């Protein structure tokens, strides 16, 4: 690769499309959780921008908590073995938990997190992912709300990074640099 070339390639999901889809997800969640106070659990750092926009489209009282995880091994390939770097502050017992993820790639991180959160006895547990790959290694039923389905290209922006860069982009682009 030409080292001087711009590693940020074409826009895959434009700002307007993100806004429109996030509004739809918020409306669905609002309808599904009437009379309840969902607890949004964001997975840091990738989900921070999505979660902040999503929360503003949910017309219900919501609460927030965050978890940070790191996967063992290669930074861009998940082994499915996850280490919790920052755990939740709140108890999940009896709560309506919505796990908010940036991207479900193989799905192994999600599988681990779902089992981990389920063991804390929430009343309900659902998953809201901004992006999901078309080919997952997990059962589709593990995903309740999905923003967009994307192919196998590595993407950055709107919270997603390549070596901590490009999270601030207000849209999602294909990344063409070194991973
Ligand atoms: P999984 O366990 O294979 O589903 O990996 C999920 C995690 O890998 C995501 O939460 C991201 O942190 C990271 N990831 C996977 N694909 C991408 C991508 O295209 N761009 C940025 N991060 C990604
Ligand atoms: Mg992540």
Describe the structure concisely.
The chain has 179 residues and is α/β, with parallel strands linked by helices. Helices cover 21% and strands 32% of the residues. The model has no long low-confidence stretch (mean pLDDT 93).
List the helices and strands and how they pair.
Elements: E1 8-13, H1 15-32, E2 39-44, H2 48-56, E3 63-71, E4 82-86, E5 96-104, H3 108-118, E6 124-133, E7 145-150, E8 155-156, E9 172-175
Helix pairs in contact: 1-2
Bound molecules: inosinic acid and magnesium ion (MG).
Report what the structure shows.
There is one protein chain. The protein is α/β, with parallel strands linked by helices and about 180 residues long. It has one domain: Rossmann fold. It is about 20% helix and about 30% strand. It contains three helices and nine strands; from the N terminus they run βαβαβββαββββ. Strands 4-3-2-5-6-7 form a six-stranded mixed β-sheet, sandwiched between helices. Strands 1-9-8 form a three-stranded antiparallel β-sheet, covered by helices on one side. Strand 2, helix 2 and strand 3 form a beta-alpha-beta unit. Helix 1 packs across helix 2. The longest helix is centred in the N-terminal third of the chain and has 18 residues. The radius of gyration is 16 Å and the shape is globular. The N and C termini lie close together (about 10 Å). The relative contact order is 0.21. The model has no long low-confidence stretch (mean pLDDT about 95). It binds inosinic acid and magnesium ion (MG). Inosinic acid binds next to strand 5, helix 3 and strand 8.
């Amino acid at each position: 690769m030409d080292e001087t070339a711009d590693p940020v390639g074409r826009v895959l999901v434009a700002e307007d499309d993100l806004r429109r889809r996030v509004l739809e997800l918020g409306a669905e969640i609002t309808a599904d959780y009437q009379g309840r106070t969902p607890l949004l659990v964001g997975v840091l750092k990738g989900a921070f921008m999505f979660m902040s926009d999503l929360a503003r489209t949910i017309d219900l009282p919501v609460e927030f908590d965050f978890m940070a995880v790191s996967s063992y091994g290669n930074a861009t390939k998940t082994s499915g073995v996850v280490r919790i770097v920052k755990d939740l502050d709140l108890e999940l017992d009896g709560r309506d938990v919505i796990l908010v993820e940036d991207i479900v790639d193989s799905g192994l991180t999600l599988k681990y997190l779902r089992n981990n959160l389920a063991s804390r006895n929430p009343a309900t547990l659902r998953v809201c992912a901004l992006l999901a790959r078309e080919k997952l290694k997990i059962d589709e039923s593990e995903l309740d709300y999905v923003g967009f389905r994307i192919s196998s290209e590595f993407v950055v922006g709107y919270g997603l990074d390549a070596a901590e860069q490009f999270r601030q982009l207000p849209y999602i682009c294909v990344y063409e640099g070194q991973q």
